[in-house]
C-alpha cells in the first residue's frame, strides 16, 4: 500500500511529488488558505486535493522546490518544525464544532492537542497514521470516521449527567469517560503508557501498515481490546461497551447556526475533491468579505464556510459555484467523492476525477428526495473514504474491470457487479 506522505517526506506520484499538509481540526484561516494557494501555484502544479482526513495535498511539487515549500508553510504555522512531530498531527473534529447544538465545543481542545503533540517526547514511537477524532456530540457523527482514538461527548447516568468524552479505541467503544478539563493531559498519559508497545506488531500487520510503530488497531489485534483498555486506563474500572448500532457519518446540509441564528454555515462540496490554487484563494476572499475569516475543511472532501450572514448566502453560493465549481450540499441530495485515480496515482485503475465530473453533470437534473452517496475508488485502499457509501465504483488492483457495489466501503468482501465504463452512468441512473 502507498506510504503516508507528509511535507517532509513527499511521495512520488504520476504528476510529480505529493505533499500532504495536516490541518488539525480542518480549521484554516484565510491567511493560511492564501499561503497554501501561493505554495500550490509556486512550487507545485497548482492543484490542491482535499482529503478524507480534512487535510490538504499539494500536487506536482517540483523536486528543487521542497525546501522553500517547507519554509513557506512554516512561516504560517501550517507545519511543525520537526518531522517526527508533524506526522502526529492527525486530529479530526466535527466541522460544525462551536457553530451548532452539541455537548462540548471541541475547537480549543483540538488546538491544545495539536500544541501538546508538537512537544511530545519520543514522537518517533508512534505511527504517522495514528488518528485522533474529537466529536462534541453534534449531528455529524464525526466519531464514525476511522480512528485510533475517538473522544465522543456524552451526558448520561455514567457521567452524572455532566458532559464528558467517552473513549472509542479504533471503533471499539469503552466505558472510560474523560473530563474535558483534563483530557489533553490524559491523552498524553495514555500515549506514555503505550510507549513499551512500540514494535509490538506481527509481520503481516507491519506489511499492511508499513510501520511497526504504535497503532491502536494493531495493538488490539495483538493484545485484545480488553487488555489494551486495561493498559490505557489502569484503575479506572472501564469496560468495553457494546455499540447498539454502527453510526454513519452524516454530511450536514447548509444550516442556520444554532448558536447565532442570524448566521449560517455553508457546506460546499466538490465532486472531484480538488481545487485549483485560484479557487482556494477565492474562497479565502469570500470568508474575509462575508464570514469570519476562517474556512473549515471537511472529511467528505468539501469546504465549510462558517458564520455567513443570512442576507449574503445566495450571493456566496453563486460566487462559490462559479469560481470553484463547488455545489451546495442542499442543492441536490447527491454526494460524490473520489480518490486521485489513475490521473494522479500509480495504483489507480481508472480515471476517477473525470468520471466524477461526468457523473455530477449527468445526475444533476435527477430528483433525489433522499441523500445518495457515490464513491469512486481506483483501488481498494480507499484514500477518499473508508466509510460505506450507497454506491461504490471501484477497480481492485490486479483487475482490469470496474465493479459497482451497493452499501459498501472499499474493504468490502461482497462481490461487485462488473461494469463497462461506458455503461456506468446508465447503471447508476437506473439504481437511483
Ligand atoms: S485509493 Fe486511489 S489514490 Fe488511493 S492508492 Fe488507490 S488508486 Fe491511489
Features:
Alpha-Beta Plaits; binds iron/sulfur cluster; five-stranded antiparallel beta sheet; 29% helix; six-stranded antiparallel beta sheet; Sulfite Reductase Hemoprotein, domain 1; alpha+beta; 13 helices
What do you see in this structure?
The protein folds into 3 domains: 11-232, Sulfite Reductase Hemoprotein, domain 1 (2-Layer Sandwich), CATH 3.30.413.10; 255-325, Alpha-Beta Plaits, CATH 3.30.70; 335-431, Sulfite Reductase Hemoprotein, domain 1. 29% of the residues lie in helices and 23% in strands. The protein has helices spanning 30-43, 66-75, 83-86, 107-117, 183-194, 203-209, 216-223, 225-232, 277-290, 313-324, 341-344, 352-363, 424-431; strands at residues 11-13, 16-21, 27-29, 47-50, 56-61, 91-93, 132-135, 149-154, 164-169, 172-178, 255-256, 263-269, 274-276, 294-297, 302-309, 327-328, 334-338, 372-377, 389-394, 402-408, 417-419. Strands 3, 11, 12, 14, 15 and 16 form a 6-stranded antiparallel sheet that branches. A 5-stranded antiparallel sheet has the order 1-2-5-4-13. Strands 6-7-8-9-10 form a 5-stranded mixed sheet, covered by helices on one side. Helix 1 (30-43) packs antiparallel against helix 2, helix 4 packs parallel to helix 5 (183-194) and helix 7 (216-223) packs across helix 8. The protein is globular and about 60 Å long. Iron/sulfur cluster is lined by residues 2, 339-340, 345, 347-348, 377-379, 381-383.
